[in-house]
Amino acid sequence: MRRLRLRSVCTIEPGLTGAESERIEREFGFEFAADHRAFLAAGLPVNAGRRPPPPGVIEAYAEPWPDWRHGDPDRLRGALDRPREGVLFDVEKNGFWYDAWGPRPDRTADAVATATAKLRDVPTLVPVHGHRYLPAGRSLTGHPVLSVWQTDIIFYGVDLADYIDHEFGGATAPGAEPVATVDFWRDLV
């Protein structure tokens, strides 16, 4: 959180309490990764005082910091659903197919239906900022932050601290190699 405070890139409210984190996890059906939870406990970055985005900016990213305390539940669900929806978009519009799903059905509608069913078992990605995500799962820590745009997925930080430096200026971890270990998403990196 200190990194964000030093760069004055957002407003930082008091961190989420344990009870707030648990309520969020229950309401939205995921668990924050341990380091993500600790980050949000240290302070909650919010978009207070931001000007409206310029024309042409995707509405979904108009408020890049998810406001887990006061945010619109539908917007938060949308941010949680966006990685899977992006994959489905690429299945339907761009011919994407994940080999582990078996042969791609000939009809696009059948391919989308199959992919929808398969994606129910894919680990949830939790938004950190805009289209930057960390995997859900309390036992997880130290995972790289992923930049997720449909099936175009890249590492955007070796871990959460490195991501903050990379995204908002600062020295990034020299020579460190990110290692994604979360099923499905690691294969798209």
Q: What distinguishing features does this structure have?
A:
single chain, 189 residues, alpha+beta, four-stranded antiparallel beta sheet, two-stranded antiparallel ribbon, 6 strands
Give a verbal description of the structure.
By secondary structure, the protein is an alpha+beta fold. The protein has one domain. 39% of the residues lie in helices and 14% in strands. It is built from seven helices and six strands. The chain has helices at 2-7, 18-28, 34-42, 73-94, 108-119, 160-168, 185-188, and strands spanning 11-13, 44-46, 125-129, 132-135, 145-149, 152-157. The strands form two sheets. A four-stranded antiparallel sheet has the order 3-4-5-6. The chain has a two-stranded antiparallel sheet with strand order 1-2. The radius of gyration is 17 Å and the shape is globular. The protein starts with a helix and ends with a helix. The relative contact order is 0.15.
Topology:
Elements: H1 2-7, E1 11-13, H2 18-28, H3 34-42, E2 44-46, H4 73-94, H5 108-119, E3 125-129, E4 132-135, E5 145-149, E6 152-157, H6 160-168, H7 185-188
Antiparallel strand pairs: 1-2, 3-4, 4-5, 5-6
Q: Give helix % range.
A: 25-40%
Mean pLDDT, all residues? 88
> What is the end-to-end distance?
27 Å
Order of helices and strands: HEHHEHHEEEEHH
Instruction: Give the quaternary arrangement of the chains.
Output: single chain
Low-confidence stretches: 49-54, 57-61
**Shape summary:** globular
Strand portion, in percent? 5-15%
Count of helices?
7
